[in-house]
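Posting here for the record, re: uracil.
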Amino acid sequence: MNIQKIIAKKRDGKELSRDDINYFVTKYTDGTITDYQAAALVMAIYINGMNEEEITALTLEMANSGDILDLSEISENVIDKHSTGGVGDKITLILTPIIASLGIPVAKMSGRGLGFTGGTVDKLESIPGYKTDISINNFIKNVKEVGISVIGQTANLAPADKKIYALRDSINCVASIPLIASSIMSKKIAAGANKIVLDVTVGSGAFMQNKEDATKLSNMMKSIGKLANRETVCVLTNMNEPVGYAVGNTLEIIETIECLKGNIPEDIKEIITTIGSYIIKLSGKNDDLEQNKKMILENIKTGEAYNKFLELVQNQGGDIEYIKNPDKFEKAKYILPVISEKEGYVEELNAKAIGEISVILGAGRIKKEDSIDKSVGIILNRKISDGVQKGNILAYVHANDEQKGKEAVEKIKSAYKISEMKVEKEKTILGVI
Ligand code: URA
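Prediction output follows.
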């Protein structure tokens, strides 16, 4: 085997064999293949694509590059949930305690933010004391004790994906169906769940810009799931505007707490009830999706979901006084309003632009090794279809650097498009596959 021949094959639009893919994954993971050789192959895959056999082989090879967890001791059906990424996406934080409060065990490994999309692990780490890097044994112990644990991906879970994902990010090759499908499914297979619910985001703040591509990606992940004996459901959700109103780590934790107390924006309510209803169904607890939606809302109303979140935080070493009293969270130094210069209705609120602005403020990373500023971000005050008067506040920028804050204010004005005509609200759930 030699990597030059493998690169040439894909460069010329030919199919890679299972042996080619095995060689690439093992030798790139152990450092024999260099970053520049891997970058050439990944770019060739990005341009020329892969067929279903190749994608399945890449998924299985990446899954097998590290530990494969066995979570069957937790429950007969262990369900995992994963999002293809978005802006203001705090669904995992809100939904997992709700599901655990219904008696369904949640053993969830999440990622960090990269590019313009945020990550659950960074958000959880803005709760003082919360540990996201516990051992697998403690992870399983926590799930057994309180029914839930949410941590970061352990070092040896699909290490090939970790390396290839970082490389893709650095050479702008993330938004590719074969590469996203294999990346997500390799981690899900390695993480040990036998049922998987995927939030496939669609729109300006997602890697899939339209429903057609999101459908292709979903069908691909479902067929990989079938082959690997993991029942998989994909829920297509709108990511043309950010989810909810908060973007930024601490700000999203505070919005999560509010949601768990029952103050839930409409888009978040639709996403958690839809995805949650499928999670409950796959767990074997109840097949009726409408009843499941009611159970979710009921557990928020009774405070059981909020109490489960407190248990999760406490069990992971987090200080629950911050959850009980969110005013304790450190605030950004400058809170600057973004004032509308126009009157009308919000026609567009570009999620990708908002994500990029929050990264510039310090809420996300440009490079993998960058540190993040937990308190900064954006609170939206108007979303698509909302009416606006001249002088109304469209959003607030939370910044620790005054100059960056002022620049963010101007950029946010351009992320909003205000129309004179009334604008319909966009659908939040675009389909279930
Ligand atoms: N999320 C992942 O885990 N991998 C991708 O490639 C894209 C989103």
